[in-house]
Amino acid sequence: MPTRQGRRDLKQRTGHVPKGFNITDRVRAICADISQHVPELAHIDVNRIGFAFAQTRKAVMHGMQASLTPLRFEDGSLTGEYRGRPMRVQRVFDNDGREMLYIYTVYLPRFTNLDFREKLITIFHELWHISPEFNGDLRRHSGRCYAHSHSQSEYDAHMAVLADRWLKLQPPEELFEFLRLDFAAIEQRYGRVFGMRIARPRLLPIS
User: Where are the domains positioned within the chain?
Assistant: First the structure.
């Protein structure tokens, strides 16, 4: 997403790139490497995903650590029904005019305060939600709980297998070493934590 371009734009406006730790750049880099080396996720194009962060209101561990927002309805349709009304999703573009199909958000400091393995599983968990067709829709499982199949624990167990397989490929340590640090340790080592913010797209009624 607009990570490198966004930094160039910021440098043009202010004459410098902010110092610190760009969390959305780092998460994007991990997801890019995963999509290149894990066959089950090879359909993912990180250039069509907006990577963002959001601040949690309370510094507690329970609650959402990350989320994937689809920007299409079922089967990749631009329009659909919500509560019986025809709707469309607000469209999102990067600085180069490329339309995004998903928004991947990490919640701080909650995500960074998970342990190393939980962070990796969380990253895979959200990537697995992406439709195999990469059409802006979610991966849909059979049954009522189409997002997580019949068992979220089995879902996450599968993500742990994929995470372990990726680690066995020995990706560069500098790619993921920050996952070993909590939020306070990241700030201590790198300075302030920053990144891309993307407003949650709205559902718009079709007149």
Answer: 3-199
Amino acid found at 42: A
Query: What does the pLDDT read at residue 153?
Result: 81
> What is the per-residue pLDDT for 70?
95
Residues contacting 188, CB < 8 A, separation 6+: none
Cis previous bond, 172, omega within 30: no
Residue among 143, 169, 170 nearest 154 (CA): 143
Burial 35-55 (b: 16+ CB within 10 A, else e): beebeebeebebebbbbbbbe
Residues near 32 by Cβ (< 8 Å), separated by ≥ 6?
Answer: 46
Per-residue pLDDT tens for 134-159? 999 999 866 555 555 556 788 889 99
